[in-house]
From TrEMBL:
Gene3D superfamilies: RNA 3'-terminal phosphate cyclase domain, RNA 3'-terminal phosphate cyclase, insert domain. This is RNA 3'-terminal phosphate cyclase. Keywords: ATP-binding, Ligase, Nucleotide-binding. CDD domains: RNA_Cyclase_Class_II. Pfam families: RTC, RTC_insert. The keyword Nucleotide-binding applies. One of its GO terms (molecular function) is ATP binding. The lineage of its organism: Eukaryota, Metazoa, Chordata, Craniata, Vertebrata. ATP binds at Q104, Y294, L295, Q296, D297, Q298. It catalyses: a 3'-end 3'-phospho-ribonucleotide-RNA + ATP = a 3'-end 2',3'-cyclophospho-ribonucleotide-RNA + AMP + diphosphate. Catalyzes the conversion of 3'-phosphate to a 2',3'-cyclic phosphodiester at the end of RNA. The mechanism of action of the enzyme occurs in 3 steps: (A) adenylation of the enzyme by ATP; (B) transfer of adenylate to an RNA-N3'P to produce RNA-N3'PP5'A; (C) and attack of the adjacent 2'-hydroxyl on the 3'-phosphorus in the diester linkage to produce the cyclic end product. Likely functions in some aspects of cellular RNA processing. Function plays an important role in regulating axon regeneration by inhibiting central nervous system (CNS) axon regeneration following optic nerve injury.
Length: 340
């Protein structure tokens, strides 16, 4: 299976974990031996962090590949993939590292496995600098399934910064090929809904305040739609540690989905968290694209793998998206069509 090794510079463009996720997933899928150098070179703590390491080890195990240089702090790895197999695979960051980012690297691979797969992903479900699991379930899932596959996402336990402790189980059957998608017609907004949550020792009033502040903020701009944001107290047996946050989703007449989300931090009042999520949603609705800024980059790898040309209409193209396109073109030799 091994051909010439593909050399990837992990320090260019976005310069973070995303380069590692896109390049190792494509390496695994396409059977391309890979070397990634200067991993996370631009970050304050360069090299592999626990969540990157657990993702790499999972990809290695998915295909019985060989992985060298994979340890915390390492800035260079080599990876030689073999045949992708299904079955049960576990990745545990042992931190609040994002389970959603573990899903980003592993899901494209098991789409083309020999048999159905179950991914047991452990870490943070609602973590900073990553999609919240609610975004993955409520926005990413219905849109990515337009490529012609389905998956089940079972949130067993929610986990927050700094302890993590969350667990999500993803089950999916393989496909022969992916269909291209066309997301260029945004339509008009028909529904706005969401959830504001508290977990652990945080009082329920915080959830209600986040929701109310978000609704007030949205109503200033969108007056003719009912905004339904449910305050939620996460059950004690389904959440590990303390956390609060909110996600708000807008659905359009053509089935497009946009989101705004925010997580609470110590010392930040609930209103501010709600307003931040509402303003993010409104900004995503103003740009006129058919996907929001956080979905763009997550779709690129599926666009590269689909049979035929996919088109998505975006707002401003993010650095994460430019990075994903760059490495999809380098490894898969595919072009993606984005319109702004």
């Amino acid at each position: 299976m091994a051909g010439p090794r593909v050399e990837v510079d992990g320090g260019i463009m976005e310069g973070g974990g995303q380069i590692l996720r896109v390049s190792t997933a494509l390496s695994c899928l396409l059977g391309l031996p890979l070397r990634v150098q200067k991993i996370r070179a631009g970050r304050s703590t360069p090299g592999l962090r626990p969540q990157h390491l657990s993702g790499l080890e999972m990809i290695r195990d998915l295909c019985d590949g060989q992985l060298e240089g994979a340890e915390i702090g390492s800035t260079e790895i080599t990876f030689t993939p073999e045949k992708i197999k299904g079955g049960v695979h576990t990745a545990d960051t042992k931190t609040a590292g994002s389970v959603c980012l573990l899903m980003q690297v592993s899901m494209p691979c098991v789409l083309f496995a020999a048999c159905p797969s179950e991914l047991r992903l452990k870490g943070g479900t609602n973590a900073e600098m990553a999609p919240q699991i609610d975004y993955t379930a409520m926005v990413f899932k219905p849109i990515v399934e337009k490529f012609g596959f389905t998956f089940n996402c079972d949130i067993k336990m929610r986990g927050y910064y700094p302890k993590g402790g969350g667990e999500v189980i993803v089950r999916m059957s393989p496909v022969k090929q992916l269909s291209p998608i066309n997301l260029t017609d945004r339509g008009c907004v028909t529904k706005i809904y969401g959830r504001a949550f508290v977990a652990g020792v945080l009082p329920f009033k915080v959830a209600k305040d986040m929701a109310a502040a978000a609704v007030r903020c949205i109503r200033k701009e969108i007056r003719d739609l009912y905004v339904n944001i449910q305050p939620v107290q996460e059950p004690k047996d389904q959440a590990f540690g303390n956390g609060n946050g909110i996600i708000i989703i807008a659905e359009t007449s053509t089935g497009c989905l946009f989101a705004g989300s925010s997580l609470g931090k110590r010392g930040v009042n609930a209103d501010k968290v709600g307003i931040e999520a509402a303003e993010m949603l409104l900004a995503n609705l103003r740009h006129g694209g058919a996907v929001d800024e956080y979905l763009q980059d997550q779709l690129i790898i599926f666009m590269a793998l689909a049979s035929g040309i996919s088109r998505i209409k975006t707002g401003p193209v993010t650095l994460h998206t430019q990075t994903a396109i760059h490495f999809a073109e380098q490894l898969a030799k595919h072009c993606c069509v984005l319109t702004q």
